[in-house]
Amino acid sequence: MKNVTLKSINISGNRCEYVFEYPDEMSRYIADGSQTLFVELPAQYNLKDVPEALLAVPFVGGMMCVTMLLGYGIKVPELDKTFFESVPHIKNAFHKMFPYAKFCFDVDVEKIVDCCYETQNVPSVFFSGGLDATSALIEHIEENPLMINIYGGDLLLTDTDSHVALDQYFRRLTGQIGNEYAFVKSNCRRFFNERKIEIDYLDNILKPEENHGWWASIAHILSMSSVIAPIEYLTKTAINYIGSGYSSKSKGFDANNINMVNAIKFASCRFSLVDDSLERDDKVTKVIKYCTANKLNVEIKVCWFAKASENCSHCEKCYRTILEILSNHANPNDYGFRMDAQGYKEMHKFAKYNMVNTAFWGASQKAFLADKDYWAKKKEISWILDFDFNNPRRLALYGLYRKVRGFAGRVKRKIIG
Question: b/e for 259-283, b at 16 or more Cβ within 10 A?
């Protein structure tokens, strides 16, 4: 069996870099061969106070998200005992997700070290600012959890504008609730070439309906949970909360599920899935009720096309979140969106001429219909009450229109040119 072998961990204050060897064929799945895999904590934390066996957890967890597909083993000089013993459970969680797939979870350790610690009372929570994370934070807000964000997970490491904006939002939010927050910076995601991994492996291994890309279907929970091992050790945290991406009743599914979250452990830290019984609209209702009752100002950051960490307010995910907020008789502009009369016209046009997920949009429509008399008086959104989503004739005509318009444009450019 071919192996990825950790040679050393170089520590400099709050940053550690991993020096390792890997088979030549693996180089095609590394985004930039000149970069170093690293984890960096906020300046006040000193990684020299973390045992090397625990520092190896981010390396093994992050690397496993790729080696499991390539059929490689992982070799490390030492590893935390709890995490090593969790590997078979992680394997079983992936097997439950994809019982038809064969993955490699071979981890060869020279020395297994017990890195357990005496835990403190303050938990932590993964917090991106999104709906799932905001709902999870509110669920455990009385415990004053440390809010941890992975800088390099959702946000590009080079997107400093978005990071600064997110940092400013965290300052505003924690100023209201009294919590602390921390950014853990890592290239655990960007170190790898996601697209090549997906083309060469995921597209051939996973069923299309279960393939949401490497980061969502395979890597994000295992990789990010592993990356926070050093900060959880230094803060002596017993439990980290992770907002559920889907209800246990939902047909939607990815690596953020209860089997995976329960499987991952290291030292004295465990992970707990929050809101597993709630649908997306339930979480919106919960957030709005809490914020209204407690005069808490939050921004629900959901956008796929965010700039400087702000929702664009006109993509599909923004639109359906706006609908979920509206159905609760709340103002989307109070929750991180920018909507006016023109914005609602554009939403209506989007719904007319685009295929949408009726599980989400249909649920919102039912919520509006439950209060039909009220919404019938609201001109900008009353259209949703009797709207026919994904109408095949309308979509076909619009598709034909776009083709004709595109052809006319090409002819015009050819004549002018």
Answer: bbbebbbbbbbbbbbbbbebbbbeb
